[in-house]
Amino acid sequence: MEPNQGFGGTLWMIFLFALFASGSGENDRDFKMCGTWRHGNGLLTLAHDLKRGCGTITISANESSLSIRGEITAQCENSSVIKLDPSPEARERPFCVYWEPLLDQLWVEVKGQNHTLCWPSGLQGNCCTDLSQGENKGISTYGILNATQRDDIISYKTHPAYEFFGEIINCKNEFCDEASQGSGDKVNMIEETVMRSKVLGNVVLPCALSSVVEMKEGFQGYNITLPAPQGVPPQMIPSVHLPSCLKPPEKKKVKVVCTYFKNSILFQGSSKADQNDIRILEDVVGITVENEIITNLPEPIRIGFHHSAIPTSHSRTCVSWDTKKDPAEVTWKKEGCETIQKGVEYTECHCNHLTYFAILVQLEPGPVRHLVALTVITSMGCAASTLSCVVLIYFLNTQRRAKDQSNAVHRGLAMALFLLSLLFFLTGTVANVGGNKACWVFGAALHYALLSSFSWMFIEVFHTFWLVYMVFSPSPNPYVWHLVGFGLPAVPVIVLLAIGKVYGVIEVVSSEDVNNPYLMCWMDVSPRSVGLLAHYFINLTFLAVVVLSGLIMLFLVLRNIQNRDEWRKNKVAFLSIWGLSCLFGTTWGLGFLDFGQLSEFILFLFCILNSLQGFFLMLRFYILDRMRKQSRSSLDGSTASSTRQHMLQEKS
């Protein structure tokens, strides 16, 4: 936590108003000028030169630069050039300039990207507002066209520059009615200040709501009921409990300010893509102690938030504003806060430091329900499959036809599944013990094992097709199978390792306990990450090819055996379909069905079948071997017809 001065001490002023309110009154408080910047196809920049005062602001554009210059700020002085993303094809891009005089804040949005030129510096006494348009600056090839001010059209033509003139006023008297209320508790609460909203025409301008507590000697803690803004029911106001350890022991008395903000627009992030993934609920509570940095409290501060019902598919987490990051960026962190969910409409945050607190709702991906049960099932299944694959590899090596090509393919699949089951069984332990450095290697190994397993499943499909439909053609050399099964999956993994920042520790959040996520080594599949692209283009592509080819081959085999009496008699048809499903990996296709009302059932079925794939594979070979010994069926004939039938059983 930063000291209660500078940026850290004035950050609460961010919330003193609701942005982008429409309408007008006696004064146009905020300023919004938009247009289309017509430019060339070279290097593009955003230049600004802002000085204190209340005079003229000029918004201009040429072939390579969009500029904002003038004297309209109360505290901000800033001059720099920002490089913009190149535009080799498009010659026009929309932009808007926003000015909020009450907070001395100015920012520019260019093609959907926000650039803060003057960050809020606190509630201003006098400010420059009611900007009126001056004379347009001629006509040019490059410049600003379709210009608007507060959504009112200025000109459809292309002008190189626009000028606006401001008027200085007293912001506090003009936009906020301040009322102070004393408190009967002289030991703790010394005052409660409510900055009430004022209505100008159709515009509602809410300001900050805060309570001030003076902690004296013998302070035993205090429960604060924050002041309610207009139109908000008292039962929906957040509650705050200040622990006794909050007061520094070396001071006789110290003030703590609790500020409540009902609007969190500025904290939603500047990127529209981010807003599709996470959302900050509208209530934000800021707590500061004058001239103190408060961290690592032995007893946490408790903030209770009332909110609308949050679906179980969305996780909610207590977060705090990270003032150590770039103040021009919206940054929330989970460290230092514990989330206590008490029903779908109430969340309590226990935090060991002071800053600004809110509830972050993760929209997608959501938390996993029954995560503990799924983890136990998967771990037990992987342990069983690991041991089963060892037994199966030994069994395949001791058979009379150990050097047969079919057995070579089966061994390859058994080895890949052994590696996958073993690594997945250990991934949680490695993530908790080794951290990101160990997971960088372990996650890559797990990814390789998964792709190798998919590759061998596809080889099983292709090999079965070869035996059934190309009986008299020699099968490819086993070295080819090993090159595809073990060599091909290494290529994308090596590329991703070279790119970097793909593998590491990831958190799987449980809907039952968001404070204790399950850690595992895997790919970073967060939005807009390289890992997410790799997951879609590599993992899902491999999986789709395996599942689709496996289903097609199952259909072809079923069509071949359904009318044969000997298959019905020995119940081999059922065992063939079940066994080939294990070989071909068609059960992995359940991952594409994880949606709708049956999503939880599908998820459990997916974990059970796929974690036990190695065990089912061993069981399948054991049953068929016993059936061969007992029945001594006629599948050992040497004719072409019997050979085809023999091959089918060998693959089943």
Per-chain topology:
Elements lengths: L5 H5 L20 E8 L6 E8 L3 E6 L3 E9 L4 E6 L8 E9 L4 E6 L2 E6 L7 E8 L9 E7 L2 E4 L5 E10 H5 L1 E5 L7 E8 L1 E3 L2 E3 L3 E7 L6 E4 L13 E4 L11 E8 L10 H4 L2 E3 L3 E6 L11 E6 L8 E7 L10 E2 L3 E5 L4 E6 L4 E7 L8 H28 L6 H65 L8 H10 L2 H10 L3 E6 L9 E6 L6 H32 L3 H5 L2 H13 L14 H13 L1 H19 L8 H12 L1
Parallel strand pairs: 2-4
Antiparallel strand pairs: 1-6, 1-10, 2-5, 3-4, 3-12, 6-7, 7-8, 9-12, 10-11, 13-14, 14-17, 15-16, 17-20, 18-19, 19-23, 20-22, 21-28, 22-28, 23-27, 24-25, 24-28, 26-27, 29-30
- Which class best fits the helix and strand makeup? alpha+beta
Mean pLDDT: 75
The total count of helices amounts to 13
Would you count the extended β strands for me?
Answer: 30
Radius of gyration: 34 Å
Shape: extended
